[in-house]
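Hi R.,

Here's the chain you asked about this morning:
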Amino acid sequence: MKRIDAHQHFWRLAERGASWPPPALAPIYRDFLPHDLAPLLDANGIDGTVLVQSLPTRADTHFLLQLAHETPFVAGVVGWVDLKAGDAVQQIDALAKNKMLKGLRPMLQDLDDTRWIDDPALDPAIDAMVRHRLVFDALVLPRHLPSVLALARRHPALAIVIDHAAKPPIASGAMDDWATALTALAALPQLCCKLSGMVTEARPDWTVADLAPYARVVLDAFGASRVLWGSDWPVVNLAGGYADWMDATATLLAQLSAPERDQVMGLNAMRVYRLGEEA
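And here is the predicted structure, written out as tokens:
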């Protein structure tokens, strides 16, 4: 069974201008490229990755697609398109010719308009995504979940993956509002959720016990067949690192059967993102 890291990033600071990450985030304020990640994948038994955009530009998406073609362990790319642009459909049609493109991700968490995604103006672009079998990665905070639910109801054929479990407020210990909204989304069959990004939402001295209630909500709501594991590397370096998150994951998934763990740790990502498919 292949083990897939369904969420990792590459970047070069020189191409990011004044965008995130800022110098204050010293552990991730440098270039991160395939040679940095390869030893971590080998050490942790990971066979392939989904490379996800972290900059809302066309240039960044083309850079990631080029890296994917040059990097054997990258199995697919989630890129970026302005889904409300006048030429969004044409952009999607052009990008989809590159078979390494598996999805698109608008950076909703950075937009002031919480309801940006709940807008019929996106419908042509969403229809193009469905036509090309592209996944919609939802980079959201809990406040965005009702709007994502509205989008999902309007477009039942659109595969949607919630990144980082919608960034629950683990550090504060709050849970109820997030859990209610996430569980409502999980009732729709085209929704999946990434078990990723949790440690950077927790306190700096986080323990597995801090994460466990939130992981349980995700697993109970979506089931093992619709949860995808990801590292969120190199962002995970802000809260320990790859190995620490892998160790925590082993504990968080211990209650699952071996076949269920195989689903979370790779099989689901291969199915949802159509990894290895040429069309």
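One quick note: The mean pLDDT is 96.

Cheers,
M.
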